[in-house]
Amino acid sequence: MSVADVVSKDILDVRRAKIIWAVAGLYTLVTAVFVYWGTQARPPEGWSGVYMALWNFVFVGAMFVPAIALVGAYLAIAGERESGSIKYLLSTPIQRRDVVLGKYVSRATVVAASLVVAFVVAAILSLVWFSEFPAGVFVGLALLTIAFALAYVAVAITISAATATRSRAMGGVLGFYFVTNLLILFGQLSILGALEYVLNELLGLGVGDDPIQLVGMLVSPTHTYLNTTLLAFPDGFEEAMLGGQTTATAWYVEPEAALVILLAWTVVPLALGVWRFERADLG
Amino acid sequence: MIGLVVVTSMPAIETDGLTKRFGADVLAVDDLDLTVEEGEVFGFLGPNGAGKSTTINVLLDFVRPTAGSARVLGLDAQADAAAIRERIGVLPEGGELYDRLTGREHLEWIARTNDLQESVDYEATLDRVGLTAEEAARPVGGYSKGMAQRLAFGMAILGEPDLLLLDEPSSGLDPTGMQEMRTIIREEADRGATVFFSSHILGEVESVCDRLGIMNEGRLVTTGTIDALRDELDLDASVSIEVDAVPDGLAADIESNEGVHAVETDGTTLTISVANPTRKIDAIRRVDERATVLDVRSTDTSLEQLFNTYTGNGEGEPEPSAAGFAGDETAETAAEVGR
Parallel, antiparallel, or unpaired for β B211-216 and B13-22? Predict the structure, then answer.
């Protein structure tokens, strides 16, 4: 099985790289800090501080996890094209499709493994610091966060498959990170805030919140992930955190729909990546 | 009833009108018709940028032809790429190996992708290419260029492929390494493999190839056996011998020998131009009988100069004499003496 050949060799190679462990280590550290911060913060009336810690954990993850995924995967193929080692890889019976899929599986495995380490550390700290330990919420968030990471790994692999040099791959993932993450996360300053301003304030179209939310999910895996996390938190917690306001009415912005979109964020980029790479000239 | 069995040997490599353009104005390969028969050692010569690597890249399906087609071992280079790669060994040009993997891991990986784990002998392969078990246990990031090239060569010959595609196999090798590589190429041919290898250095091809093809500016200029091409191109090689003093009549004496084209004397240095490199050692012996040899420098005609000389390309004025070849661009390798 050629995909397995790519995976085993790439994992052997990448687990000896230091950068991915450095980023994952930093994430673990920041997660630990935010869990601690949860012990100090004042949770909403009637909720344990552990939920505050998990809420923070989601937002830390929303910024950090894409960075880990992109750093861990952006050179997977472009780096080999620049160094020319791709020629050795493709001098074997391995096919190009196997390269893209195999690189995805190996980098996804490494990234997921580093996230699991962070989750375990956070779980241990939560057990020590809080009286309550909602294991179901923990596992749910961990699974959603891994699905979120895998979407960014898929995007990074696709950018890597479509670029011939390290610098272009880096430019591609940086641009994607800015547009789909940093420019999405900060409310009024975000792309969605700007879109709403243009549509409703300038053009006076009176577009509702739901279509804008949908656009957000279609352009950003980060936005999609944040919507899916409502699946993991207990009913009523979000309302308590956000001061009683209710969200999401249309079916297509329900957390379940968001989960489907999140999975599509893995499948669609990978298909594109395979398509592009099979047609590339590797001169 | 007795039928007549016609045995037609299928070419190992066959291109038909192969053309590759990059962008609008780079024509890397121009209407190439090339046939390499099964079992032969074929040297693919040409200056840098002639289109050799692009041709090999098409055979390996790294790049797709703009027009024409290529077949390898009777299979279509594009449609049957994976099936072809199961039967060939490749030494690509300018590719780095995996710094973080050891030499041995590289070989094991090639064996696994080709389903050869049961049948290959890693130690024997390492031994053939001149790497020790200790060297093979180290990450390739710490290898010298020559060691990396030896390992890459080992990866190519692992598992006795039907066809070896070697792109500039001698790059990074010292003269000893080049000699060892030529020996292995010969051994591979003797067990029945077809060997196709590219080079821009004529001297490295001539001693090992059955047949040559010369490429220039994307076109196949000529193909044929070494002897046929030698006659056609009137290849020259020269050796410079520095002596303590030049005895009277020595130059004329040597010039009268078979295979010597010209002898020039410049102070205490004799520059002897010979028909082919094997004549150099005769010339050196003859000088040694009559004078004390202080230094010997051997000069081979580089292919680039040959192209300049015989196709009128480039800035070099046509001057097919030994003196014309002894200029700055001449590849000088003292260690090549006595080959």
Answer: unpaired
Q: Match domain B13-230 to its CATH number in 2.60.120.10, 2.60.260.20, 3.30.70.360, 3.40.50.300.
A: 3.40.50.300
Overall average pLDDT of the A39-60 stretch: 81
- The DSSP code for B10 is P
Which CATH number describes the domain made up of B235-336?
Answer: 3.30.70.100
Contact A43, A49 (CB under 8 A): yes
**How many pairs of residues across A and B have Cβ atoms under 8 Å apart?**
79
Q: pLDDT of A165-215, one tens digit each?
A: 999 999 999 999 999 998 888 766 788 888 888 888 888 887 788 888 888
Contact criterion met (CB < 8 Å) for B95 and A88: yes
Give B57's contacts in chain A (Cβ within 8 Å): 282-283
Residues of B in contact with A92 (CB under 8 A): 85, 110, 113-114
Separation CA A83–CA B98 (nearest Å):
9
Chain A partners within 8 Å of B90 (Cβ): 87-88, 91
Interface of B with A in 39-58 (CB under 8 A): 53-54, 57
- The rounded mean pLDDT for chain B is 82
Q: What is the ipTM of this complex?
A: 0.82
Residue B185 burial by CB count (10 A; 0-12/13-18/19+): exposed, middle or buried? buried
pTM attached to this predicted model: 0.80
